[in-house]
Amino acid sequence: MGGGNLSLFLLAAVIVAAIPGPGIFYVAARTLSGGRQAGIASTFGTALGGLVHVIAGGVGVSAIILASAQLFTVLKLAGALYLIWLGIRTFREAGSLPPQQTGPTGTKRAFREGVLVEALNPKTAAFFLAFIPQFLEPAAGYPALQFMTLGLISVTLNTFADVIVVVATSTARTNLVRRPRLVQRLRQGSGLFIAGLGVSLALARRPATS
Question: Which end of the chain has the lower number of beta carbons within 10 A, N or C?
């Protein structure tokens, strides 16, 4: 790829990564509910889920899903129901779990949930298919490889932004540890927010395809 085109992509990808979106809000909510380790685990989980869409986009699977109203709806509803279930469970657990939940079991679970949340989100697939192709260079050949390379860069930048959000959220959460009642309310609120993301995903419309 040409240096100018790559530089333009990097600039656009950095701007996209810095703009708060559902992914950032999700890892922030997970950090509030489970602490820094859970937030970091969720971040790397969503990164892996994002790579699933990058590979699927590169080999053409994402385009097939977005072109089919039925496939898009099935994937969308699966992701929405999973988010709603996670949100309800987080809300219910907020009243029984200790303020500091940083055990390996919780971290592994947060990672797995992050993978599924992102992998089951067709809006991520739609974003990559709309964003990346405009920076591909047909004359350079290997469009699938170009797509996956740029997708990997985009996921890396998004992950870096998510980690910053996790650290900031975790610091704010630590300062509130001496107020367990408030922490409990924040954790319950994070559960409701995650469920709200699921409702938002359920209402999402399939993007127009040419």
Answer: C
* Torsion, CA 89, CA 90, CA 95, CA 97, rounded to 10: 100
- pLDDT tens, position by position, 51-91: 999 999 998 888 888 888 888 889 889 988 988 998 898 88
The count of other CB atoms within 10 Å of the CB of residue 4 is 8
Lookup: tokens for 62: 């994402």
Taking all residues of the chain, what is their mean pLDDT, rounded to a whole number?
85
Residue 80, token pair as written in the block: 């929405």
In angstroms, the CA 172 to CA 102 distance is: 16
- Angle of helix 122-131 relative to helix 36-59, nearest 10 degrees, comes to 60
User: Rounded CA gap, 181 and 194, in Å?
Assistant: 20
Give the Cα separation of 22 and 120 in Å (integer).
Answer: 14
CA gap 96, 200 in Å, rounded:
28
